[in-house]
Amino acid sequence: MLHTKAQETAHSAVTWCKSLGGKLPPTDLVGRIGRTGCHGRHKGNIERDCQTVINTFGKRFGATISTAPIRMWNPKKSRIEVKNLPLIFPDDFASALWARSPQLFRKMLLGDGNVREYWEHCRNFCDWFRSHPSYNHPNNWDNMVPMSLYGDDVQTFRNSECGAMSIVAWSSDLSTGNSFKSRYFLITAFSEYEECAYTFNDLMSEISKRIIMMVTPKMAREKQYPWLKGDYSFMLSSLQGDLKWVNHTYGNLFDYRSNDFCGYCMCKKRHDVIGMTLGDFTASALHASTTRVYRHEDLVNRSPA
Ligand SMILES: [Zn+2]
After folding, report:
1. Distance 295 CA to ligand 1 centre (A)
2. Rounded to the nearest whole angstrom, what is the distance from the C-alpha of residue 174 to the centroid of ligand 1?
3. 277 C-alpha to center of ligand 1: Å?
4. Cα(273) to centroid of ligand 1, in Å?
5. pTM of the model
6. What's the gap in Å between 286 CA and the centre of ligand 1?
7. What are the pLDDT tens digits along the chain (305 aa)?
8. What is the distance in A from the centroid of ligand 1 to the CA of 278?
9. Contacts of 150 (CB under 8 A, 6+ apart)
């Protein structure tokens, strides 16, 4: 596995280099990161310099960086404290995207596919969509963004010490054809050792406020979101991420480790009737004819306020 990964990386590096004719423009991000190790007196500064480069580069996008009071664990004082955590709210990010260009906004959020076809598919096959308010407004389907929240933990290194960071981001279900870096938009990141029992709910109540404004037509008009000029709208359509992380933070989801593991049908790991178990994988298995029904109202009732 590892050597194919290395080959892929080497191949894309060569392709990228060729596309630039072998010469990097002085402002190129990769070039600037590459140069951080080449001068300076102390080796230890490379990491700091690299972070500065990424930081200044990221800020050029122009999205508003807000802060919100979030309860977090202070390991030095062994107590929970309120910390102002930096966040890029999805509506601020989308506004900055629109300011860059409406074409970029569309490409990043709706990809190159047929948007109406996607919603018509949802109309035909998805219970959750049929009970959603947007179902009654098919005129909007050409420009409606299926918004998705994303969460995962990633291994990180600082001064060669390893630790885990929680990442909260958002995406669009129609951006799957875009490259990885233009699919997931960061909302915030924090060290897991700073997380306490309240952190995630505090964070989500701040983020939900903004998402509610994005998806509620009346509120969106009051906020005068720029994408309304292009008749765009948003709706929350899915949650994605690492299953373990999503289950740990959202709770109450179907857990692949439990007996009642399947979110699609009523299949169980252990059941008195063998046809209802995972062991029966024939097409005529009893569980194959069962389905779970999801309704928009159920999701709303289960979400934290
Ligand atoms: Zn199933």
Report:
1. 18
2. 25
3. 9
4. 15
5. 0.75
6. 11
7. 567 778 888 888 888 888 888 888 877 887 888 788 777 677 777 878 888 888 888 788 889 999 999 999 999 999 999 999 999 999 999 999 999 999 999 999 999 888 999 999 999 988 888 888 889 999 999 999 999 999 888 888 777 778 899 999 999 999 988 887 789 999 999 998 899 989 988 999 999 999 999 999 999 999 999 999 999 999 998 888 776 776 776 666 667 778 988 888 899 999 999 999 989 988 899 999 998 887 777 766 765 54
8. 8
9. 167, 168, 169, 170, 171, 184, 239, 240, 241
168 Cα to the center of ligand 1, angstroms? 28
92 CA → ligand 1 middle, Å: 38
